[in-house]
Design a protein that fits this description.
With about 325 residues, the protein is of the alpha/beta class. About 45% of the residues lie in helices and about 15% in strands. It has a single domain, classed as TIM Barrel (Alpha-Beta Barrel), CATH 3.20.20.70. The mean pLDDT is about 95. The structure holds glyceraldehyde-3-phosphate, 1,3-dihydroxyacetonephosphate and zinc ion. Its EC number is 4.1.2.13.
């Protein structure tokens, strides 16, 4: 047994104050997923350069990929890097889509300042029981907890559902009261991955269900809401991927203006993973295609990291509204 690592010792914060400020300031805190050093560097650099609070987000499988023992040390290094450059932005480390009490506890005991417990596929009662179990432990350690009601469509490594069902506003109050969760992820039409809608040629993505969001806000005044599956899927990155040998036909995401509208509401956290993956893949494909003799990882991961920094700065400023809000 190794000694627990406290998030305070990694210069991290939980999401409590971040969400209060986001609610008051009518913006959303970005939660960017990462798996490796270049993504982590890009996220903290992009957010430090835009003076934005940030949630570093790690799924269970991403944590396994990077190595659970290495993870807190990577994050400590990334925080130290931006502090050395003079940035004081608040930084949280968050478990994305935690699927068991054991995983959530392991993260809490190894430096995470926030965890999601995703019981959205369970019955209401089972979801409440699992979420409360995590909240009861997390709160003794000062760690904040995100729960989820409603199911998003979309497929990723550990998150998969053929169809969505929207969050039922009549359930949210009881869920929050019974579990003590600090924030709630809801389903209002976003979905995971790069293929969020099946559109006919010329068709626009359907609007998010702002009516459901508004009803939830009325039932939970001042309570932080979270949007998953909120990548916009840049047509430029998709075109680059296809131009340089990829095959991502019909990829489509959530229009930025809808996310901007959501960020001005009780939505205090917006999750973005696919957009970062697409940005890096597009640049790496371009380098490989234009310089087939290149085999130094710095020559393709470096430009990919730069592209991710630009994407993050643009999102913080123009979509989340979090730039300058540290
Ligand atoms: O919503 C899930 C995240 O995008 C991470 O997925 O399990 O492929 O790391 P992952
Ligand atoms: P995207 O696939 O839209 O980036 O969603 C990411 C997410 O919700 C992570 O939990
Ligand atoms: Zn998600």
């Amino acid at each position: 047994m190794t000694d627990p690592i406290r998030y305070e010792d990694l210069d991290l914060v939980n999401t409590k104050k971040m969400f209060q400020k986001a609610m008051e300031g009518k913006f959303a805190v970005p939660a960017y997923n990462f798996n490796n050093m270049e993504q982590l560097q890009a996220i903290v650099t992009g957010c430090a350069e835009s003076d934005s609070p940030v949630i570093l987000q790690v799924s269970g499988s991403a944590r396994q990929y990077a190595d659970p023992t290495m993870m807190p040390h990577m994050v400590k290094g990334a925080v130290a890097m931006v502090r050395k450059a003079g940035s004081k932005i608040p930084i949280a480390l968050h478990l994305d889509h935690g699927n068991s009490f054991e995983l959530a506890k392991d993260c809490i005991d190894s430096g995470f300042s926030s965890v999601m417990i995703d019981g959205s596929h369970l019955s209401f009662e089972e979801n409440v029981r699992l979420t409360k179990e995590v909240v009861d432990y997390a709160h003794t350690m000062g760690v904040t907890v995100e729960g989820e009601l409603g199911v998003l469509a979309g497929v990723e490594d550990e998150v998969s559902s053929e169809t969505s069902h929207y969050t039922r506003p009549e359930e949210v109050q009881a869920f929050v009261e019974k579990t003590g969760a600090d924030s709630l992820a809801i389903s209002i039409g976003t979905s995971h991955g790069a293929h969020k809608f099946k559109l006919k040629p010329g068709e626009q993505p359907p609007s998010l269900r702002f009516d459901i969001l508004e009803e939830i806000e009325q039932r939970l005044p001042g309570y932080p809401i979270v949007l998953h599956g909120a990548s916009s899927v840049s047509p430029e990155h998709v075109a680059m991927i296809n131009q340089y040998g990829g095959n991502l036909e019909s990829a489509v995401g959530i229009p930025a203006d809808q996310l901007r509208r959501a960020a001005k509401s009780a939505v205090c956290k917006i999750n973005i993973d696919s957009d970062g993956r697409l940005a890096m893949t597009a640049v790496i494909r371009k380098v490989f295609s234009e310089s087939p003799a290149e085999f130094d990882p710095r020559k393709y991961l470096g430009p990919a990291r730069d592209e991710l920094i630009s994407l993050i700065k643009d999102k913080n400023k123009n979509v989340l509204g979090s730039a300058g809000k540290m």
